Structure formats: C-alpha cells, structure tokens
Amino acid sequence: MGSDDLEQCMALLEGDLTPLYVERVVHELLQQRKDGGSGVGAFRVVVHLVRDLALRDADLMPIYYRLKPALRAAVEQSLFLWFLEGG
Which residue range(s) make up the domain with 45? Predict the structure, then answer.
C-alpha cells in the first residue's frame, strides 16, 4: 500500500471513529476473548480496524499514534467505555 493510499485510509478511519462504532468494535473484540477479560487495548482496536490492509508490522505504530486522538475522543464520548493509558 502506498503512502497516499495509507493516508487516505487513515483519514477515512478517523472519520469513522464515532462512539457507537468504537463501542461495536470493542464489543466484537470482547466476544473474541477466551480468557474472560473485561477490557480491550486501544492498540488492539486499531489493529482490528486495519486488519484487511496489506501492512507491515512497522506500519502499525504510526497508524496507532495517528488514530489514537480520534479513538480517545470517541471513547470519552461513550457512556460505556473508558480509555486507560498503559496496559
């Protein structure tokens, strides 16, 4: 994936990160947990969002840092989610 395509994809994802959309993604990821845990890391959410893209592992952290403010804003607007640093 070229840098222009990646930039466009990240811009689209930023716009999609509404509280309702993020709640749905988190709920889906919680359903996949086998250990009975009650949380989902923000990085895991981002990896899930870009799972269909042909990306190298080295591309994931820049994408995470790009999407983190929009993800945090969506979580902070949700009545059901909390954004915690660390992990």
Answer: 3-77
Percent share of the chain, pLDDT over 90: 49
Nearest-angstrom CA–CA distance, 13 and 5: 12
Q: How far apart are CA 53 and CA 57, in angstroms?
A: 11
In a domain, 87, yes or no: no
Q: What is the pTM of this model?
A: 0.84
- Residue 1 contacts residue 58 (beta carbons within 8 Å): no
Q: How many domains does the chain have?
A: 1
Q: Are 68 and 27 in contact (CB under 8 A)?
A: no
DSSP secondary structure letter of residue 48: H
From residue 38, give the alpha-carbon distance in Å to each of 12, 27, 33, 53, 79. 28, 10, 9, 27, 16
Q: Is the pLDDT of residue 87 over 50?
A: no
